[in-house]
Amino acid sequence: MGCLERPSGNAHVIWSHALMWRGLLATLLLFSVARCDLLPRPALSQKIVLDVNGKQMTAQRFAAELAYRLKDQDALSAKDPKTVKNAKAKICEEFLVQTLTEEWAKENSVMLKAEDLEEQIKSIQKNYPDDLAFQQALAEEGTSFKSWRDRLQGSLLQKLVAKKVMQKALTASDADAQSYFNDHKGEFSERETAQVRQILVATESDAKELEGQLKQGKRMPELAKKFSISPEGPLGGSVGWVEKGLTDVFEPAFHMKVGQRSPIVKSTFGYHIFELVARKPSRNKSLAEAKGEIKRILMEKNEQSLYLAWLEEQTRKARVFKDQTFIDALTVETKSQ
Questions:
Q1: For 118-171, what is each residue's pLDDT tens digit?
Q2: Which end of the chain lies in a sparser environment, N or C, as judged by fewer CB atoms within 10 Å?
Q3: 162 and 14 in one domain?
Q4: Is the Cβ–Cβ distance between 66 and 58 less than 8 Å?
Q5: CA 258, CA 202: separation in Å to the nearest integer?
Q6: What is the secondary structure of 97-155 as a DSSP string?
Q7: Residue 207 counted as domain residue
Q8: Which segments of 191-269 are extended strands (E)?
Q9: 183 lies in a domain?
């Protein structure tokens, strides 16, 4: 340990991992660690940098994990000290959590069924046209099917354990809901909304033609069914209720009178003509209306608190070793092929 605490700049160990950089075909991500001359290269690569209750992570594996986490960064970002520091911290944190999760699951007979894992794998694979596309996606991620499967298995086991731990979370009472509502009334409000119907066409000349027909007395629902290219066209152009401040196209509706028609409005979708059908003012929800949402919020908070307390307890009982000096000395370099 004393040797690594006073690293020598005369020798380096380098691990290389092929990565897919944005805008480049490929590069090599190089990890350099200052080391003592007395420590041979193979010994350094197998040096233990993390140990949680006997489960260990070697320097070589740590470097591979760091490469995996930085693979989507461009060359400049991947070398940014803050980015690298955060990635290292995440590796340490997740190794600790995963190890404690696996141990607790074993002690408490919480098991991920093989069929559940396979079902999840198949569900993900369905998002790809075929197996070749799926394998290509793994290759672009710089990972093997086994490594990807192991990560998925670990993630699913964490969810199972968290669910088990959080089962003891207490349901929020009506008094709790009342108290939360009193302190967060501003969170339970509805924005002003407008009900609109529209005609959307591709060209300004088409919009002007339809605007002329509307001025002659034609009804918008009929024209929308015939000419509108928007999804709600067949429904007579009924967009439904839109909230104030969320849609630039319909923002003028909040300054119109019910029944009033807009001028032609251009957007990235085409040319719009819309009319205001109805409008509702903003309002605050009552406790009765908000109670269900509040109880869900409080339940989530209770579950989160319970899980964090569990994790803190497991961490406190664990035997944890981290070679922070070595981890801090691990640096990132990039080279284009």
A1: 999 999 999 999 999 999 999 988 889 999 999 999 999 999 999 999 998 989
A2: N
A3: yes
A4: no
A5: 26
A6: HHHHHHHHHHHTT----HHHHHHHHHHHHTTSSSHHHHHHHHHHTT--HHHHHHHHHHH
A7: yes
A8: 193-201, 238-243, 265-267
A9: no
- Amino acid found at 51: D
* pTM tops 0.85, yes or no: no
Are residues 122 and 34 part of one domain?
A: yes
Tokens standing for residue 286: 């009552």
Neighbouring CB atoms inside 10 A of 310's CB total 18
76 and 199 in a single domain? The answer is no
Question: Can you spell out the DSSP letters for 30-77?
Answer: EEEEE--TTS-HHHHHT-EEEEETTEEEEHHHHHHHHHHHHTTS-HHH
Residue 57 has pLDDT above 70, yes or no: yes
The dihedrals phi and psi of 242, each to the nearest 5 degrees, come to: -120, 145
The domain spanning residue 229 has which CATH number?
3.10.50.40
CATH number of the domain within which 139 lies: 1.10.4030
Q: What pLDDT digit, counting tens, does each position of 278-313 carry? A: 999 999 999 999 999 999 999 999 999 999 999 999
- Tokens 């251009």 belong to 266
**Are 202 and 228 a contacting pair, CB within 8 Å?**
no
Residue 31 has pLDDT above 70, yes or no: no
Question: Residue 335 has what pLDDT?
Answer: 62
- The residue segments making up the domain with residue 250 are 189-284
